[in-house]
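Take a look at the protein record below with the fold in mind.
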Amino acid sequence: MVNRVMITQVWDDFAQGSLIILQGSLALLRDSLAVVGLLAALLLGYVIHNDGARQQALAFWPFQQDGEIANAAEVESLAEAVREPALKATSLLGLEDAPSSESPTLSLNKEQEAVAKYLAKRYRINKAATDILVEAAWNAGKETALDPLLILAVTAIESRFNPFAESSMGAQGLMQVMSRVHQDKLADFGGKQAALNPVTNIKVGALVLKDCVKRGGSLEAGLKLYLGAVIANEGSYLERVNNEHERLKLVAKGKAPVIQTPLPVAQPSREPKPEPLDQLAALG
C-alpha cells in the first residue's frame, strides 16, 4: 500500500514537472515566433516597396518555365497579389512612409549603434529590430524633450522589449500603454489597435511619460505616476529603471558594462498600473 502511494506521488510530481516544462517551452516558442514574424514582415515590406528587390525576388521564383523570367504582366499580377498584406505589415511596423527606392536599413550614429548592440545582446532581440526601436526612442525623445535612453530604460523594465506584451488589465506593448485610457493619444495613429505597433507604442508611451513628469514636477515623481498609484514595490521599479538608465548612459559613452548573462526572453515585467481610470485619464 505504501509503495503504491509513493509511486502515485512520484508520478504526480513527474507529470506536474513535465507540464511546467511544456508550458515554458510553449512560451519560448510563442516569443520566438513573434520575432520571426516581425522580421518576415520587415523583409516582405522591403521587397514590396522596392521595385529592384521585387524584380530580383521574382527572377528566382521556383515555378518559372526553363529558367525564364516572368513577363511584365505576370510580375505585376504577382506584385498586386501580395501588395495589400505587405502594406498592412509595414503599416503595423510604422514603415508605410519609407521611400520605395531606399533600403530600410537605418543609419544610426555611433552612440545609437552602441546602445542598439547592447540592447540586442542583453534582451536577446534581433539587431535589425533593435535598430528600429532605438531610432524610434530617439525620435520620441526629440518630440517630448525626454532622454531617449530613459525611454529605452522604461521600455526595458515595462516589457523587456516584447512588442506584444499585454497585462491582465490591458496595458499593452513595449511601454505598456493603457489603450482604453489613452485613446486620445492613439487616435492620431489609427486607434486603440495601434498600441501594438512598436514605433507608435514608443511615441505614445513617451507622451504619457512626459505628462507624468510634468504633473509630478520631477523625474522621480513622474516615474511613480507612470507606474501607477503608490504601491509597495515602487522603490524596486524606480531602482530598476534608474539602474538600466545608468547602464545605457555608460554604453552610449562607449563604456559598456559587463553583461554576466542575458536576461530572459521578453515577458511583461509586472502587473499593470492599479491607478483609478479617472486619475489616469487626467494624464491625457
Q: What stands out?
A: The longest helix spans residues 2-49. Confidence is low (pLDDT under 50) at residues 60-70, 97-103, 265-284.
